[in-house]
Write a structure and sequence with these properties.
about 230 residues; alpha/beta; Rossmann fold; about 40% helix
């Protein structure tokens, strides 16, 4: 039996302040470190041996993986970072508070851009310093570098990564991915064949853990092992 674990990173200051973070490279808070350790203790209860960890290229994801797997008391498995596991690119909203978005774009704008299916945020200009920094940091993205993504865009972006990982799980390897709220939603939507309406209920908090097990048909399912943490079913 092989597993794929999906974990959302711990809290950052911008999470706490209610700011659109996207690809901004925010560190964990002390609470975020605690979120990460709690996620690791959830994996301890599963009792699996993990063969590899995948993270995004953002430090809140990498740090969460390190804190989480320190709880297992074993050498850190091989860890690889991928830009495809980055958070949704929030375009010109990067760093803007939810209150500021509401003031500029009206009631409901925050929910549309946080939880909507195919609604993209205002695009960031190519010469905006924030986007220039992203372009320099992610040359491997090339023409795929986004300037603002909907949930549907993130689903398309993570699918190539997931296809490769599913082959590894099918070969019996236990894989953990430490990622971000919208990215975790996108992965669950693909795995669970979730509809846009059902996807509205997938709102993982910081430190959330969702574990899938391989089934004989080659797919994945949520195992009937009870919740690993209070956050698993989000």
């Amino acid at each position: 039996m092989a597993y794929l674990a999906l974990i959302r990173h711990g809290e950052t200051a911008w999470n706490r302040e209610g700011r659109f973070t996207g690809w901004a490279d925010e560190p964990l808070t002390e609470r975020g470190e605690a979120d990460a350790r709690a996620a690791g203790r959830s994996l301890v209860r599963l009792g699996a041996r993990w063969h590899a960890i995948h993270t995004s290229r953002l430090r809140r994801s990498v740090a969460t993986a390190e804190f989480a797997f320190a709880e297992l008391g074993v050498p850190l498995p091989a860890m690889t970072s991928h830009w495809r596991l980055n958070e949704r690119h929030v375009g010109d909203l990067e760093g803007v508070s939810h209150e500021g978005v509401t003031a500029a774009h009206g009631p409901g704008a925050v929910d549309r851009w946080r939880w909507g299916w195919d609604v993209r945020p205002p695009a960031i200009a190519p010469d905006d310093p924030r986007q220039v920094a992203h372009r320099e940091r992610y040359p491997e993205a090339g023409a795929e570098l986004p300037d603002g993504e909907s949930l549907q865009d993130v689903i398309a972006r993570v699918r190539p990564w997931l296809d490769e990982v599913l082959e590894q799980v099918a070969a019996g390897r236990n894989i953990a991915a430490v990622t971000h709220g919208t990215t975790l939603r996108a992965l669950r939507i693909i795995i669970e064949a979730t509809t846009p309406e059902q996807a509205l209920s997938l709102r993982p908090p910081n430190g959330a853990v969702a574990v899938f097990e391989q089934v004989d048909s080659g797919g994945l399912r949520l195992p009937d092992i009870g919740p690993l943490s209070d956050q698993t079913g989000c």
